[in-house]
Q: What sequence folds into this?
């Protein structure tokens, strides 16, 4: 179980994070934004677990990833609730339309 | 075939799953397809966890992400309706593209650093200690050293549940997302026509049409 | 008692805590829950708190250890609650404990405070019955008792100060108890501010004591006073400027100004004073504020705006005597300074006479009593000022009883007047009373007894014994101070070497002068007190036409009497008479209003003065028979009246019945050694009886004059005096217009200053600064608003721009070197470590240095030599940066820690020519002190 070197995982994680970040920046659908955030969180989790693998004295990285999953679940729940109530107000889920506080 | 090669192939499959899933997530026009892409990426990462001796995390990844978060996304997409993202609008497009370009630049630099770091040799993974990433070992650590954080994460989830309910219910409490369907029995067609009037800005739901068709 | 002694050892006498905490609990419960508890519960709570405290005080008094004559330290009950502060003043530690102590003086005060306090609580529970703020009143009153107990029990200056401020606060709260009326609120503020001026003095005294004695406990002050407080302090009152020289040059021929005036106003020579004098003055400033002495007395007459029981408890019996208590407590400091003692005595004597004169023609019954209080406080200060600490304190003791009795009697009368007259000024106007002895026998008798007591009726009444003792001591003794005619044996505790500088001594005429001034004051006291007595209780009733069986047309008034009384008890507005009578005309008292000659004037007066809601003309309305007050009000009167007689026999020295005095004497034994009999006077001889004669004569003359003028002549002499000399009469009636004087001078000055600051605030702060900051904020906001699009993705994009900046930073190589020069001095070894970075590779170079790829290099510097080391850092992008370290090892000669090691700052790359290979170490050095062991330095250059 040690054929794949660390750098590969880091690279995959980096690419995934970049995809997520670019998606977050470019897309305007709030749901896609939330999914992009999930992608980025997953990328970070992957690096944590990968580094934990190369320093296997304890499970700090894995447990950290575990807590990030917890936070991500909470974030998804809240975020989707916000999207729902935003949709109720504006009848849309476009991020650009969330500008009631402007002007 | 050697075990190492199998692992490498497995990693390659997972990588493909992750990258294609990721791209699909952010690129798909239809959010439902996006959610499917997210599912793929999540499963790919779960596979990588297996490679990284994190069995428990792989399981949690599948259960929590694939089983709960993605399903939640699907529910919301279903509630909102697929057509809620209207036509393109160029407002703020310059800023967004500029940001994306900057980020891509930084990412490329970072990847370069990762690939060049430590010279030409790749860091080989050490042999994992016995039982690494299993439920027993990770659980022991969570419930001893990390128990406070674990408890607090429980509180966080509780708050998230309550908060999500409070936010989703809205000010009026228990207001339905869509107005109640006021069905009238049409004696001639023997079917229920749903009156969704009152949702003026929502385009005529297809549901109704299919209902009518049937 | 054995039980008590076992339970409460003398040095850990926790019973004091119980004495203290009961009123505090009462205040807390009544203040927080009182509104919901209801009046009965509030009353029970307040009474039981004070009653319990009184019982504990009695037990404390009984367990006082017996004093031994000649013993150095006076036995005391002590209770240390906790350590409060640990001050460090100029290197000396001054621990400040929350410590409470009780000796005979404190215990006596405790008995007075809790005993009289209990009676007044009892009285108030009836008097305030109809007031909506009942619970608030008792909360304040209990809090007052607590603060007062802290004040007297506190065994060090800071604790005393806590109580001192606490009673000030309660006094303020209770004066302004009916705060809805503006004059009451402003009277409270006036009291508070006048007291603050005094508190400044007290704080100053504490600072001086902390600095010079290094202790703030009373025992410590006493022990160190004779030594530490006799140092000289130089003072330049108006600044130490070389003005005198200039002046003399200017007027070399001689100026028209006397020299001493020049010396004072153009000082370049300091005034030398003893610390004890300074402390004495400062403490006395505090006492003058709290105890209403000249010049800070003005608040006390106004303080009568509070409910009458408050006037009795706080502004007559207890709080205002705190100043006397403090002077007595600090007697060991005061006797070291004859000047401070003289100031105390003279101020006291002047106040006694001055305040008495202001009481002459007051119409308001409570005002008369207020001025009498100020005057009696003057007597007390006279006593402690001439060194008669026991006598002065004994007067505090007796005065508490008869003055409380007088005030409560006045309250009882006012209570009766409120049956028909609800206006504050009218109901307290003595000229609306009269003949009340028939209707209010108990009030009448107790008032008479107290009058006799305060006037000093010989041999039977308490006031006589205390006042006479003060006057006799004023006549017979003088404060000699450490340099006076004191037998050397008695000077044991004074370090005379500390005070070679000449101290001011009492002139021989000072004592007798004070005595005669006191006699004049006593005469005046007798006069105006009996004036109030005869006008109030004799003659015909002038308030209304008494109709037997009269039924109030508004029966609900019966319940609201006190409520209304409450909403404006006293006339505290000293401007009122002059405002109402712009020409300085004060209405003639209406004693004889029924005679036709006065009718018109009287009507004017009634309509003019009347500010109430009912157009009542006193004397012309019908009303019921004035009634005696109910039992809860008369019982305290009777007890206090009895004490106004009996208290005297606790200290009747001339007839050798003086148990209390004997208890008190050991406390002052130490201090009174410096108070000696005047030349040619035998302190225990027959002169004493002879000098009693003027005192008795004062009482006879004063009260006789009042009897003649107000009983036989029905006040006619006063009216004719007023008619013949309206200017003088009105001047006295307006209290010599001192308030107006203060308004014009001090307050006017402050007002003018405030006006200036208002202008500054308006034009500079608001006009310029505020506008500028506003514009600045607006400008920044205008810029930032452009970026504040409200779109979350734009925000994310700007985050990414920051990320780009950070990325650029990481693309650059950064060469930092950390130099460990710990062993530079001893062995010359230096360790240079380059800071790590992602993907960095290092190359070290330097004279005689092995090329190294490591991030760390070691080299040795010889003594007196300088070495340079250069590191080249290369990152993954192939970029390079250099850093150079120059280390100089000092020559062997200087001792360690004398010559700093030089680390040359490096120029930017491009100008990479070092200053010079063997640059002298003092050339623009970055200092690295040799004793900075292991200190890390960075020599850094980018790129």
A:
């Amino acid at each position: 179980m040690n054929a794949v070197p660390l750098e590969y995982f880091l690279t995959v994680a980096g690419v995934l994070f970049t995809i997520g970040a670019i998606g977050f920046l470019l897309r305007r659908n709030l749901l896609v934004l939330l999914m992009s955030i999930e992608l980025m969180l997953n990328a970070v989790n992957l690096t944590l677990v990968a580094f934990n693998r190369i320093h296997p004295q304890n499970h700090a990285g894995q447990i950290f990833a575990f807590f990030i999953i917890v936070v991500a679940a909470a974030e998804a729940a809240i975020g989707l609730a916000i999207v729902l109530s935003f949709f109720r107000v504006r009848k849309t889920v476009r991020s650009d339309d969330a500008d009631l506080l402007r002007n | 075939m050697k075990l190492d090669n199998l692992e490498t192939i497995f990693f390659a499959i997972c990588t493909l799953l992750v990258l294609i899933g990721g791209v699909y997530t952010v690129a798909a026009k239809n959010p439902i397809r996006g959610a499917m892409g997210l599912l793929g990426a999540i499963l790919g990462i779960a596979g990588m966890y297996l490679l990284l001796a994190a069995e428990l995390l792989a399981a949690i990844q599948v259960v929590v992400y694939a089983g709960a978060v993605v399903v939640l996304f699907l529910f919301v997409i279903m509630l909102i309706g697929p057509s809620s993202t209207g036509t393109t609008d160029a407002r703020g497009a310059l800023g967004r593209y500029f940001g994306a370009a900057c980020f891509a630049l930084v990412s490329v630099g970072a990847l370069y650093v990762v690939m060049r770091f430590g010279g030409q040799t790749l860091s080989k993974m050490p042999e994992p200690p016995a039982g690494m990433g299993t439920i027993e070992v990770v659980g022991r650590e969570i419930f001893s050293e990390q128990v406070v954080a674990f408890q607090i994460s429980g509180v966080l989830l509780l708050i998230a549940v309550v908060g999500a309910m409070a936010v989703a219910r809205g000010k009026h409490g228990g207001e339905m997302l869509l107005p109640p369907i006021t069905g009238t029995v049409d004696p001639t067609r023997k079917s229920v026509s749903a009156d969704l009037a009152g949702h003026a800005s929502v385009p005529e739901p297809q549901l109704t049409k299919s209902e009518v068709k049937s | 008692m054995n039980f008590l002694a076992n339970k409460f050892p003398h040095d850990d006498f926790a019973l004091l805590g119980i004495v203290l905490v009961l009123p505090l609990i009462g205040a807390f419960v009544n203040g927080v829950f009182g509104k919901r508890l209801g009046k009965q519960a509030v009353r029970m709570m307040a009474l039981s708190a004070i009653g319990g405290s009184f019982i504990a005080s009695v037990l404390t008094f009984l367990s006082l250890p017996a004093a031994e004559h000649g013993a150095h330290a006076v036995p005391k009950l002590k209770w240390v609650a906790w350590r409060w502060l640990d001050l460090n003043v100029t290197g000396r530690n001054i621990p400040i404990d929350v410590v409470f102590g009780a000796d005979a003086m404190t215990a006596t005060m405790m008995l007075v405070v809790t005993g009289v306090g209990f009676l007044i609580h009892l009285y108030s529970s009836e008097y305030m019955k109809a007031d909506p703020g009942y619970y608030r009143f008792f909360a304040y009153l209990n809090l007052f008792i607590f603060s007062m107990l802290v004040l007297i029990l506190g065994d060090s200056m800071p604790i005393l100060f806590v109580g001192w401020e606490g009673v000030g606060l309660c006094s303020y709260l209770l004066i302004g108890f009916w705060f809805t009326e503006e004059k009451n609120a402003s009277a409270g503020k006036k009291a508070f501010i006048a007291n603050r001026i005094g508190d400044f003095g007290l704080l100053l005294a504490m600072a001086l004591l902390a600095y010079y004695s290094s202790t703030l406990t009373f025992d410590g002050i006493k022990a160190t006073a004779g030594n530490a407080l006799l140092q000289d302090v130089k003072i330049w009152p108006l600044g130490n400027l070389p003005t005198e020289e200039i002046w003399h040059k200017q007027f070399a021929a001689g100026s028209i100004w006397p020299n001493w005036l020049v010396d004072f106003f153009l000082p370049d020579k300091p005034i030398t004073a003893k610390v004890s004098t300074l402390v004495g003055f400062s403490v006395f400033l505090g006492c003058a504020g709290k105890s209403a002495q000249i010049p800070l007395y003005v608040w006390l007459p106004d303080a009568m705006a509070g409910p009458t029981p408050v006037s009795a408890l706080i502004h007559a019996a207890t709080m205002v005597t705190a100043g006397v208590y403090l002077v007595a407590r600090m007697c060991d400091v005061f006797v070291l300074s004859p000047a401070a003692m003289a100031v105390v005595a003279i101020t006291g004597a002047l106040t006694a006479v001055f305040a008495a004169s202001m009481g002459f023609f007051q119409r308001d019954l409570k005002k008369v009593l207020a001025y009498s209080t100020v005057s009696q406080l003057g007597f007390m200060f006279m006593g402690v000022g001439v060194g008669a600490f026991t006598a002065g304190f004994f007067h505090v003791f007796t005065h508490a009883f008869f003055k409380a009795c007088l005030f409560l009697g006045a309250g009882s009368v006012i209570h009766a007047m409120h049956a028909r007259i609800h206006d504050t000024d009218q109901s307290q106007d003595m000229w609306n009373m009269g003949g009340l002895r028939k209707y209010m026998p108990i009030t009448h008798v107790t008032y008479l007894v107290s009058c006799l007591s305060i006037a000093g009726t010989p041999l039977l009444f308490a006031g006589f014994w205390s006042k006479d003792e003060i006057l006799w001591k004023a006549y017979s003794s003088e404060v000699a101070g450490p340099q006076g005619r004191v037998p050397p044996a008695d000077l044991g505790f004074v370090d005379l070497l500390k005070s070679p500088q000449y101290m001011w001594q009492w002139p021989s005429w000072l004592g007798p002068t004070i005595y005669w001034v006191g006699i004049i004051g006593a005469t005046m006291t007798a006069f105006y007190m009996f004036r109030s007595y005869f006008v109030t209780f004799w003659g015909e009733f002038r308030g209304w036409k008494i109709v037997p069986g009269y039924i109030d047309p508004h029966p609900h008034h019966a319940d609201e009497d006190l409520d209304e009384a409450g909403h404006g008890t006293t006339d505290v507005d000293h401007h009122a008479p002059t405002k109402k009578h712009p020409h300085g005309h004060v209405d003639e008292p209406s004693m004889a209003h029924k005679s036709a000659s006065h009718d018109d004037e009287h009507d004017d007066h009634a309509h003019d003065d009347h500010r109430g809601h009912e157009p009542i003309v006193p004397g012309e309305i019908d009303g019921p028979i004035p009634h005696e007050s109910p039992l809860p009000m008369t019982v305290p009167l009777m007890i206090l009246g009895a004490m106004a007689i009996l208290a005297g026999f606790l200290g009747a020295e001339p007839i050798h019945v003086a148990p209390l005095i004997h208890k008190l004497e050991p406390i002052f034994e130490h201090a009174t050694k410096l108070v000696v009999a005047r030349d040619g006077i035998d302190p225990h001889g027959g002169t004493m009886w002879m000098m009693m004669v003027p005192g008795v004569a004062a009482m006879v003359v004063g009260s006789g004059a009042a009897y003649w003028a107000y009983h036989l002549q029905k006040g006619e002499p006063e009216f004719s005096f007023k008619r013949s000399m309206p200017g003088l009469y009105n001047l006295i009636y307006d209290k010599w217009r001192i308030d107006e004087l203060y308004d014009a001078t001090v307050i006017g000055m402050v007002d003018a200053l405030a006006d200036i600051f208002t202008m500054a605030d308006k034009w500079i702060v608001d006009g310029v600064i505020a506008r500028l900051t506003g514009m600045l904020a607006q400008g920044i906001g205008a810029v930032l608003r452009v970026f504040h699009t409200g779109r979350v993705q734009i925000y994310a994009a700007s985050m990414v721009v920051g990320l780009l900046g950070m990325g650029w930073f990481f693309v650059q190589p950064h060469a930092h070197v950390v130099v460990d020069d710990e062993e530079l001095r001893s062995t010359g070894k230096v360790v240079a470590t380059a800071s790590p970075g992602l993907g960095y590779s290092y190359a070290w170079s330097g004279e005689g240095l092995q090329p190294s790829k490591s991030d760390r290099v070691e080299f040795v510097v010889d003594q007196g030599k300088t070495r340079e080391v250069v590191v080249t850092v290369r990152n993954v992008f192939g970029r390079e940066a250099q850093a150079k370290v120059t280390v100089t090892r000092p020559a062997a000669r200087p001792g360690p820690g004398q010559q700093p090691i030089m680390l040359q700052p490096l120029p930017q790359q491009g100008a990479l020519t070092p200053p010079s290979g063997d640059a002298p170490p003092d050339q623009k050095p970055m200092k690295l002190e040799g004793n900075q062991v292991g200190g890390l330095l960075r020599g850094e250059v980018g790129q």
Summary: The first strand of chain C starts at residue 77 and ends at 89.
